[in-house]
Amino acid sequence: CGPSHGHFRAGFPRRAPARVGGFIATVKEVETGVPWTQHDLAAARRHCVKTVAEVLNVSPASTERAVLNHLDGTDHLGDAVRNAMFTFADIVKMSDRDIQIVLRQTSKEELVVALTSADKEVVDRFLKNMSERVRGEVRDEMKAIGPMRLSEIEAVQLRIVQKVRRLEEQGEVTIVRGYSSQDPFVDGAGGESDGK
User: Fold this and answer.
1) In terms of DSSP H, where are the helices of the chain?
2) Overall pTM surpassing 0.70 (yes/no)
3) How many CA atoms lie within 13 A of 61 on its CB side?
4) Residue 56 burial by CB count (10 A; 0-12/13-18/19+): exposed, middle or buried?
5) Distance in angstroms (rounded) separating the CA atoms of residues 166 and 2
6) 113-168 pLDDT, tens per residue?
7) What does the DSSP 8-state code read for residue 172?
8) Alpha helix (H) ranges present in 33-60?
9) How far is residue 100's CA from residue 85's CA, in Å, rounded to a whole number?
10) What does the longest C-alpha to C-alpha distance in the chain come to?
11) β-sheet bridge partners, residue 192
12) Could you tell me which residues are beta bridge partners of residue 180?
């Protein structure tokens, strides 16, 4: 992480174990360095986690599993990278069918809170995949919801993201990685999804 970010990204999939070792060593070195403040440590850790997540998002599934399994035994870094790899906003990249599966696993109360601070694209994508009745109820409750702390909203969004990852592990949905508008995701019916 840091100045060699580009080189790290280019060689990561092929030399994953060594790169992960270097990543962990960087975090450990920062943690034991006297001049570093807690703020510096947190910022360095976030940067490294983000870098690994970005690389894994466009790496083969076998590389992703190997790296995350390695990180699982290191100060919860595996969970941190998983959460950074797929965010609530990334749900718009999923097919309509998969979003509907996620909706069936998510309560209306959770949706109302999670969508409160979401981008319009995310809100519209969820609403599109609801029945007319549920869509109206969610819209009404979103208008009526009182002030909430951002941390509370993000906690609910994270719960939904974790549900998506569990569904992916069970083979129920597909998380789109390395998505490009030039490489659209196609629904089972044969048409392109509306994911952006």
Assistant:
1) 5-11, 16-32, 38-57, 61-71, 77-85, 96-104, 108-115, 120-128, 132-144, 150-169
2) no
3) 5
4) buried
5) 32
6) 999 999 999 999 999 999 999 999 999 999 999 999 998 998 999 899 889 989 99
7) S
8) 38-57
9) 21
10) 59
11) 186
12) 183
